[in-house]
Design a protein that fits this description.
Length: 377
């Protein structure tokens, strides 16, 4: 895989950077996150017009059919700005599930709507006691006489679930104990969505499903495809998240370096003190390591060997999460007392990078997953 930016990728990166610098200045982002529930439909439509939402969706559904290398370019720029919109859960994870497991009707309806920005779809797979285990599902799908299913159960920490027009819900099919995915619209009777803010300024939601009736056409793929479909979505989500985190670290190093160049102490800029220069150098090393592992994660998506792909993605996720925590902590400390306040954007970056570890499985989970893949290989 060639990670040198092509002319088209460089143009996309430049246009995205100009866009986020205009729309995601610190004050504007902070205001939007606190007044609009971390989601702005106008920004979402603008991202669709720029091709961000349909980047990896096939051309026959209104997308561009680009690969993982182009996605890395986009997510890196979005990470620099701490974009609030649900690009990863909708345009990456949900799109990956629908493209590979959806029926022709589901693809025509939902992939087209995702690419255009008309609809938002996100995954609802975690439950209160699942602890990153996608197979730990208690939600039940009971087949109905005459077709369709009745869903009962609950889901927690649904990323951007409050803004979603439809949710991809995992459930065990009664009578077979097989895991399946269902496309559940927000209008379905018996579905209750309770939204709340997360630490990093985004939004999540809890779902309650009580006798929620969905048609036969809501089933994504076949009964028994659920775990494989979720794994496919997580692979793409991890690769996108690693690129986003690398972009956030890149920008945080720039912010910290600029602060040290302008802040005076003992009649000299803080950047002139060698001890602080060494700490910034350590931040740069971790940022470059994270970016390199984001490349590894993107390359893993084309790896045909399952064990090798798992090793690459889990290694990337754990390494990027560790690097993000280090860069975030150093940035806060190098800003001194101000770094501990809510006055500076450094805190926003620290919180987002801290949350990277919890998404799609924390470091302990991925170290365990890496070791299991090593044994399997």
């Amino acid at each position: 895989m060639d990670f040198t930016y092509s002319e088209e990728q460089q143009m996309l990166a430049d246009s995205l950077r100009r866009f986020v610098e205009s729309e995601y200045a610190f004050a504007a982002r902070r205001t939007r996150s606190r007044t609009l529930g971390a989601f702005d439909r106008e920004i979402w439509r603008a991202l669709a017009e720029m091709g961000v939402l349909g980047l990896n969706i096939p051309a026959e559904y209104g997308g561009f059919g680009e690969g993982a290398a182009s996605r890395l370019v986009v997510q890196r720029e979005l990470g620099r700005a701490l974009v609030l919109e649900p690009v990863i859960p909708a345009a990456v994870c949900a799109a990956a599930v629908l493209e590979n497991y959806g029926t022709p009707a589901q693809k025509d309806t939902w992939l087209t709507a995702l690419a255009s920005g008309d609809k938002i779809v996100t995954l609802a797979w975690q439950e209160p006691e699942s602890r990153y285990r996608p197979e730990a599902v208690r939600t039940v799908a009971q087949p109905r006489e005459g077709g369709g299913f009745v869903l009962d159960g609950c889901k927690s920490l649904v990323w951007h679930g409050e803004a979603a027009d439809a949710l991809i819900v995992s459930a065990r099919v009664a009578g077979s104990d097989e895991l399946a995915l269902f496309l559940v619209g927000r209008e379905v009777e018996g579905l209750t969505v309770t939204g709340y803010p997360t630490m990093d300024g985004l939004r999540a939601a809890d779902l309650a499903l009580s006798n929620a009736v969905v048609p036969e056409g809501a089933l994504i793929g076949a009964v028994g495809d659920g775990l494989a479909a979720l794994g496919h979505a997580f692979d793409h989500g991890i690769a996108a998240l690693c690129a986003e985190a690398a972009g956030a670290m890149e920008r945080l190093v720039e912010i910290t370096s600029e602060y040290l160049r302008t802040r005076q102490q003992f009649g000299a800029a803080l950047a002139s003190f060698q001890a602080l220069q060494h700490r910034v150098a350590d931040m740069l090393v971790h940022k470059e390591l994270a970016l390199s592992m984001a490349y590894v994660a993107a390359q893993a998506l084309d790896e045909p060997d399952v064990a090798q792909r798992t090793r690459m993605l889990s290694a990337a996720k754990a390494t990027v999460a560790r690097a993000g925590r280090f860069v975030g902590q150093q940035a806060v400390q190098l800003h001194g007392g101000m770094g501990m306040t809510d006055e500076l954007e450094v805190g926003d970056y620290f919180k987002r990078l801290a949350m990277v570890d919890t998404l799609f499985g924390d470091s302990d989970y991925h170290v365990e997953r890496f070791c299991s893949a090593m044994q399997a290989g």
